[in-house]
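Late entry, evening session. Most of the bench is empty. Finally got around to the prediction I had been postponing all week. Sequence below, unchanged from the version circulated by S.P.
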Amino acid sequence: MSLVRRDLPPPRAADSVAARFTAQLQIHTDVHDVAADLEAGADGLVIIDTRPHESWRNGHLPGAIPMRAESVATEAAGRVPPGFVVVTYGWGPACDSATRAAQQFALLGYRVKEMLGGYEYWVRRGLPVLTPDGMFRSWPDPRTGPAPAPSAEGMSR
């Protein structure tokens, strides 16, 4: 039995594939890495929420700044210090607002990464969300991976 379909091109050489994945890791991050950076108090990091402002107001990552992709060109310089690393996020995997905002930041010369999974996967993993009522954590969705051992404090189903 063949592991590669005969009607498709053969796999590329390992070194070119490794280069491709290395390039992806330079522009993408995931919710776990962003959460770890925030928990560690990483300096020089700015999180940009690209969802509509009403959505941001209802809940967002702690410390996130609301900024729509179409506003980056006019707002970035006044809100994001030069030299900081920017991480953008949108609704979830099917939303490209974070991609568009990341592109705009890159065109302005910022070092930028897009957070894969967006707000949806952040919430599904039970990571902290700032809401009008304070900090909130949902119970982790067991389909997203091993659930951390959360305390009942601040949790909601």
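Two things to note before I forget:
Helices lie at 14-27, 31-40, 53-58, 72-79, 97-107, 118-124.
The beta strands are 28-30, 45-49, 65-66, 85-89, 111-116, 129-131, 134-138, 155-156.
Will write this up properly tomorrow.
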